[in-house]
Write a structure and sequence with these properties.
By secondary structure, the protein is α+β, with helices and mostly antiparallel strands. Helix content is 37%, strand content 17%.
Length: 509
């Protein structure tokens, strides 16, 4: 089975109700949209309702750039000015120490873009600050180079490796991935079926699909289990968790117990992720190694009903990431402007920006966000818990992951007594009883788990029955061998003769 057949099977499993994945013709209409983003010298847009009026701005890099001391020359580090706020703040890894990021941005829940992390830039390696081969000498993005990404060209053709540079910069080009002996034949997740089962495709097949598909919203490799594969786990050697995010408190419970938290990403043009908040109060970082992405961020105070935009979707329209950016989001802004800042659109705000190769986006907990791949992209992302967002993560984890929270609390008591004390303070404040101290809750949990297991078994059985039915339908009917019809006739004749003989014999007597 070639890549075309695998892609057809994966698409059918992922969205069985969608018969025509090219129905909107976005492969033809998307290029002008992408071209405008790539050519724009103002890749940051903000939209805010202020005093009943819509304030919309398009900003250059210098308008949102922050300094290593945590200040922002024009927009107060996202803190706002007479013209409004500017998110995300853009920082240079070569000039921003982790302590500044933690105190000025992470602790204040300010979205940030950090430049040049995968190229080895850091405060301790200032000589690597200009490693971004995708920017001109004045620090502006070289758009011509980015446009080549969608055609399969790559700017990292040099064989030299800079100090601190991620191996991913060389290993994660589309051509390198297709030739990679460890990864090319590994099946990676590119979707889920209606029952929640993972749909996988070999990376080599997926890269062919990436190049030639014309789907409106293509499949997207978003794999969280690569570290469980004996070959694909090599990906862990290709990158290093940026020093800004190296505190990961959920790691105390162990890899087996913790929820999925890191994903290897390979996205074709037009694919993306729909608007969401990261789970369990975690924050996230997303490093783009190759390609271009478009982001939109909504502050936590914007209601879910507004962010989702379901009321703005017309009958027959789709709601994938590409539709969200090109259709739903513009309608949302017009609706907000027409509302005069009243009702559910009071204090509405959203911030769009373009992420280029070598940039790491920090999304604080509670911020809604959606992402669209403007070109073919490869990257890595992780969710994490640090001291700065511990209160939020603990408050959601103790109720959402009851048993894991008990293990986490014990590990915190062993290694971070101050955080264990804080967790117990939050429990007392909210009147929360831990799972292991609540027999009634344990009973409810076991009952719920039993019901879940039962539904899982029933779903698995239905899946098997469906598969057997499909196999039965597809099985060719058994053809008679030549001469079988004569044998059948003889048997009939013989049985009729025996019956007649029996009748005659009986009559004679």
């Amino acid at each position: 089975m070639g890549w075309q057949e695998k892609a057809i099977k994966a698409r059918k499993g992922h969205r069985p109700s969608l018969k025509n994945w090219e129905r909107d013709g976005l492969a033809q209409t998307f290029p002008p949209y992408a071209e405008a983003l790539l050519q724009s010298d103002r890749p940051y847009q903000s939209f805010e309702m202020q005093n009943g009026e819509a304030v919309e701005r398009s900003l250059r890099l210098d308008d949102v750039r922050g300094d290593g001391d945590g200040s922002n020359r024009k927009c107060g580090g996202g803190g706002g000015s007479s013209k409004g706020k500017a998110y995300p703040v853009v920082l240079d890894a070569a000039r921003t120490p982790p302590r500044v990021f933690h105190a000025k941005y992470e602790a204040q829940c300010v979205p940030v873009v950090i430049r040049d992390v995968p190229y080895g830039a850091s405060v301790s390696r200032n000589d690597a600050a200009n490693n971004d081969g995708n920017r001109d000498d004045d620090g502006d993005v070289n758009m011509e180079e980015e446009k080549k990404e969608c055609d399969g060209h790559d700017r990292n053709s040099s064989n030299t490796t800079k100090e601190g540079e991620w191996p991913a910069v060389r290993r994660w080009t589309l051509d390198a991935l297709a030739r990679d002996p460890h990864l090319a034949d590994r099946p990676l997740k590119c979707g889920e079926d209606d029952d929640g089962y993972t749909i996988r495709m070999k990376l080599s097949y997926f890269l062919e699909y990436l190049k030639y598909n014309r789907d409106d919203s293509p499949l997207y490799i978003f794999d969280a289990t690569f570290d469980e594969d004996r070959y694909a786990k090599r990906i862990l050697e290709d990158y290093t968790v940026p020093e800004y995010f190296d505190e990961d408190l959920l790691g105390l419970v162990g890899e087996r117990r913790r929820p999925p938290y890191r994903w290897f990403l390979v996205g074709p043009c037009r694919s993306g992720t729909t608007v969401h908040i990261d789970p369990l109060g975690t924050s996230a970082w997303n490093t783009l190694v190759h390609g271009v992405k478009r982001w939109v961020l909504f502050p936590p105070h914007v209601p879910k009903s507004v962010v989702k935009g379901r009321k703005l979707i017309l009958p027959g329209e789709d709601d994938e990431a590409i539709h969200y950016f090109t259709t739903i989001l513009p309608r949302m802004k017009r609706k907000a402007a027409a509302s005069g800042g009243k009702g559910e659109y009071a204090n509405f705000a959203c911030y769009e920006f373009t992420q280029f190769a070598g940039e790491t986006v920090f999304v604080p907990h509670g911020w809604w966000h959606a992402v669209l791949n403007v070109t073919h992209t490869v990257g890595i992302t992780q969710n994490y818990c640090s001291r700065r967002n511990f209160d939020e993560v603990w408050s959601q984890t103790r109720g959402g992951r009851k048993k894991m929270a008990c293990t986490w609390l014990r590990r915190l008591a062993e290694q971070h007594p101050d955080l264990a004390k804080r967790a117990k303070e939050l429990n007392r404040r909210d009147g929360f009883v831990m799972w292991e101290d609540d027999p009634e809750e344990q009973r409810r949990w076991r009952k719920k788990r039993a019901e879940k297991e039962k539904k899982k078994r029933e779903k698995k059985e239905r899946r098997k029955e469906k598969k057997r039915a499909e196999e039965q339908q597809s099985k060719p009917s058994k053809k008679e061998k030549w001469g079988d019809h004569r044998t059948t006739e003889r048997r009939k004749e013989g049985s009729n003769g025996d019956a007649e003989m029996r009748e005659v014999s009986a009559g004679d007597y």
